[in-house]
Amino acid sequence: GAVVSQHPSRVICKSGTSVKIECRSLDFQATTMFWYRQFPKQSLMLMATSNEGSKATYEQGVEKDKFLINHASLTLSTLTVTSAHPEDSSFYICSGRGQQDQPQHFGDGTRLSIL
Amino acid sequence: GQQLNQSPQSMFIQEGEDVSMNCTSSSIFNTWLWYKQEPGEGPVLLIALYKAGELTSNGRLTAQFGITRKDSFLNISASIPSDVGIYFCAGQSNNAGNMLTFGGGTRLMVKP
């Protein structure tokens, strides 16, 4: 149980393009969803937290106008990287959590490459 | 902010050997979690620990929640090649909205 599906798994696009990544909880209701960024050989860095139906809370240094997050339902959150540039290239991972005291379950990540 | 020190950073062992890794923190956590991440994939939850002193097993994996609530260890017995990956500890605190704080990861390599 507790499966999180993330799509697409890989995106290659031109600079200036906007890219949308979807995160779905398949067999549980994710009251809270999280978006992380991971650089090579590093740990996960939290970008933002979103609760269903509320605006996302962004970590310090993460531009909310650059990384648009929508959590419209208990099973779907989306991250849109707007006007992406090469420095936005990274591995983006989402996770979902049911109740507050339950562990987070992660998607398989999206490798974003901006040319 | 909270910091988790995870060690060792990497291990290169022979198949069949036992492995031990640990995480320490300057802060108390209510939950300790251990995840494994393989290349190009997201972390997969291995073990969740909810009580100080708790010792939990999942197959060849055993993890403990330290009595002080500031540390945890993960042991892997009789390692096999498919154990290769990066293992992350993560602490979860009620004081921090149950957000996860991750350790830096332990990269495990197993020689057949």
Main traits of this protein?
heterodimer, A: 115 residues, mainly beta, 7-stranded mixed beta sheet, 4-stranded antiparallel beta sheet, 52% strand, globular, B: 112 residues, 6-stranded mixed beta sheet, 5-stranded antiparallel beta sheet, 0% helix
Structure report:
The complex is a heterodimer of chains A (115) and B (112). The mean pLDDT of chain A is 94. Chain A has strands spanning 4-7, 10-13, 19-25, 32-38, 44-51, 57-58, 67-73, 76-81, 90-97, 105-106, 110-114. Chain A is mainly beta and 115 residues long. In chain A, strand 9 and strand 10 (105-106) form a beta hairpin. Helices cover 0% and strands 52% of the residues of chain A. In chain A, strands 2, 4, 5, 6, 9, 10 and 11 form a seven-stranded mixed beta sheet that branches. Chain B has 112 residues and is an all-beta fold. Helix content of chain B is 0%, strand content 54%. In chain B, strands 2, 4, 5, 9, 10 and 11 form a six-stranded mixed beta sheet that branches. A five-stranded antiparallel beta sheet of chain B has the order 1-3-8-7-6, with no helix packed on it. The model of chain B has no long low-confidence stretch (mean pLDDT 94). Classes of the chains: A mainly beta (115), B mainly beta (112). At the A-B interface, strand 5, strand 9 and strand 10 of A face strand 4 and strand 5 of B.
Structural class of chain A: mainly beta
Strand content of chain B: over 45%
- Beta strand % of chain A: over 45%
pLDDT averaged over residues of chain B: 94
Instruction: Kindly name the structural category of chain B.
Output: mainly beta
